[in-house]
Input
Amino acid sequence: MFTGSMVAMVTPMHDDGSVDWAALERLVEHHIAEGTDAIVSVGTTGESATLDHDEHGEVIARTVKAAAGRIPVIGGTGANSTSEAISLTRNAAAAGVDACLLVVPYYNKPPQEGLYQHFKAIAEAAAVPQILYNVPGRTGVDMQNDTTLRLAEIENIVAIKDATNDLDRGQDLIDRVPEGFLIYSGEDGTACELMLAGGKGTISVTANAAPNLMHRMCQAAISGDPDTARQLNGQLADLHKAMFVESNPIPAKWAVGQQGLIGAGIRLPLVPLSAQHHDEVRSAMNNAGVL
Output
């Protein structure tokens, strides 16, 4: 499976909200050139909530085509309807993704047994490798470690993106999961320390704006070089924070736009970054050496 810096890639859009396919291809080439270790297509940062099913499938398919086997592509295929998640996952598998990322069902707040049955059903319906995604701050439900451990016994459930921002919980998973099941960070601010503790990568918002720096930080952390990892992460610290001065992916899209890679398009109900935050994000980018 994949290790290192896996960018939760933004979906570039024109001012009218339509997907900018040329910019999408440009972003894929950029991440390959900058050393990004894998691309997550149409996750939260890719505005999955406002893409319809046809667009969702096309963004993933075009990302796979642009990658052309040069970088792994992970398709975001989670939903709070099990049947919908199965459909999205099957479609992504047919498009040629290397794995799928499946968020904990949001809004309807299933109990732990419901979470287990949901992910088990998807795994049984689609043979593609699957990565769980626990982000209680967005979903309103927190998948407990014991539930993750049950799911880790299913052959094609291969990893979890842990966005709880709780290093103790992450360490507990690292200590208890079966061999071969990987723990990824979903929080850029704590990713370095989780990898130094045994995590194998991060699915990163910051990597949109600083792909090479994130790649190098991750490689240092995973290889057990804490001094280098922490030095690089210190260079990124302001940028980690700046990516969340407003709701993700608003700051990330603005930052990548400042680098000349995409336009300013974003879909309602999200809106472009407020002018009051421009200097803060720009300063963080300058501090990281990416602007």
